[in-house]
Amino acid sequence: MLASRGPLYPGPGSRLGGDVRHGWRRPAGSDAAASGEFGRHRVVAALLSEARQTGNVHAGIDYTALTHPVAPPARTDPTAHAVSRLASENGWQYFTHAVDQQLPGVVFREVDGKARFSQRAVNIVRIPGDPMVEVGDSFYTEVAVGNQFTQQWGYAAVDLGVAVPSVTIEAVRNRARSALPATPAGAAVDDSRPGVRVEAAPGSEQVVDALLTPEIIDALADEAHPLDVELRGQWLFLYAPRSLSNDDATSWRAVLATVDLFVARVRELRLPQAAAELPPAAGSPAAAPPAFAVHTAPLKSRGSRVNGARVGLYLGVVLAAMVIAGGAALFFGR
């Protein structure tokens, strides 16, 4: 499934979580469901404790490289040095950088499937397991008002191996800083869950409600480490408009705990296999049908994600420089 050098790439009884209903809004006047609320916010430490009790968390990870850092060699980036040591001490793969990653997520590719302009990533770590997890920091370049601006997204990528609906989930705290560059076209919207906004392919509301447990919502809306989500094809992506492959052990724990919560929940639901399977042999029992139908949708771009404040600051500096230059020319040209 994985190339030896480069990014991950795509290869060739269910529970509804209680009686909570949510405020889904579909385009073109569809009826909205009654809204509901989950319980009070839980901190990351509580989520980690609960995950360990259920055996879902990545156990036995040695964070000494981050909690007791060693001074890097001369002219070596301290963060890259810490992440590479973290990978080495845990038997993970580490790659300094990659360009034009083949991952299908919205921070890697345009809605037409083309790679984002000048897309690249640094400090890429691959954590072996079932499934394998890749964590890194991705960058791409946008052009606005004739100038180039770099967009950064930390990410975790997981090939779930089962078909999932087209969904984006944005933490309110992340969205205020930088919204995801694309969402499912014609999405049904639910912003009744505390701290997050959910946009899903129409028809997939039931499976999304089943997937998003209170523990998952609390992990995504965490005050210190908020995370966005994209589900697409057979992939789970966690995003943040900040570094995720960093020297902060608490951030790593939060990301991996959230991955484990999603993987555990997906396995609890009978979602259809992503790859086509051969029909059962004659006389053999047929597999149980999936509990949910999976709906997909193409992506809709939100346009430029360049921060307006950055553009305004740039234009202000340029205007001020022009005024100063003009004034100087008038004064000294007399």
Describe this structure in words.
By secondary structure, the chain is an alpha+beta fold. It has two domains: 41-274 and 287-303, no CATH class; 305-334. The chain has helices at 44-54, 64-67, 78-90, 172-177, 205-211, 214-220, 249-268, 308-332, and strands spanning 24-25, 93-99, 120-127, 133-144, 147-159, 167-171, 182-184, 188-190, 196-200, 228-232, 235-240, 299-301. The strands form two sheets. It has a ten-stranded antiparallel β-sheet with strand order 1-8-9-6-10-11-5-4-3-2. Helix 1 packs across helix 7. The longest helix has 25 residues, at 308-332. It is globular. The relative contact order is 0.17.
Q: What structural class do you assign from the helix and strand content?
A: alpha+beta
Question: Which bin fits the share of residues in helices?
Answer: 25-40%
Strand portion:
15-25%
- The radius of gyration computed from the alpha-carbon positions, rounded to a whole number of angstroms, is 22 Å
- How many domains is the backbone divided into? 2
pLDDT < 50 stretches:
1-20, 29-45, 51-55, 275-291
Strand order of the largest sheet: 1-8-9-6-10-11-5-4-3-2
Oligomer: single chain
Biggest sheet layout: 10 strands, antiparallel
Terminal CA distance: 72 Å
Shape: globular
- Spell out the helices and strands N to C: EHHHEEEEEHEEEHHEEHEH
Overall pLDDT: 79
What is the tally of helical segments?
A: 8
User: Quick one: how many beta strands?
Assistant: 12
